Sequence to fold (172 residues):
Amino acid sequence: MNRCIEGGPLVGVKLWVAVRAFEECLDPIVERAIELKAPVLQHTWYKITGNLPGESTSEDLAALAARHPKASFISAHTGGDWEIGIRAIRHLPNVTAEICGGDPTTGFVDMAVRELGAERVMYGSDYAGRSFASQLAKVFGADISEDAKRLILAGNIKRMLAPIFQAKGMGL
Fold:
């Protein structure tokens, strides 16, 4: 983190399947991310066949986020089972639901905006695993305002990254 974020071009941290997000061994990483003003993206998923040993659910991320209210978290895929994922994070204002992955199911973005507010929903492409069209369809097909769509597609990520860009002396 010191080399690649503080002294390098990276602007965030991605946690995936090394350990589940509720594990306390992640606390020093999150604390350093807070110091660096870097958001933390956590891969979250619910598999019908069961998750991998270190694969996190939205509840796992919620436990980590509750311990670190000053950190900015992105719930990648919003757990895949987005109805459960949205409900797991809705009480945590420091967690943003990211909508990539999965099919462009009607209702996903609508529910996320209704439960979290448009300011806590973020577009993601999941490129190269999904087509841009299928992921954009989730936003463009949602029954939400044009202002909400603008926040989801660009405004929210810009706002989240603004502190670290400013710390690095970069414009956004």
Observations:
- The two ends are 21 Å apart (CA to CA).
- The chain has one domain: 2-167.
- The longest strand covers residues 73-79.
- DSSP finds seven helices and five strands in the chain.
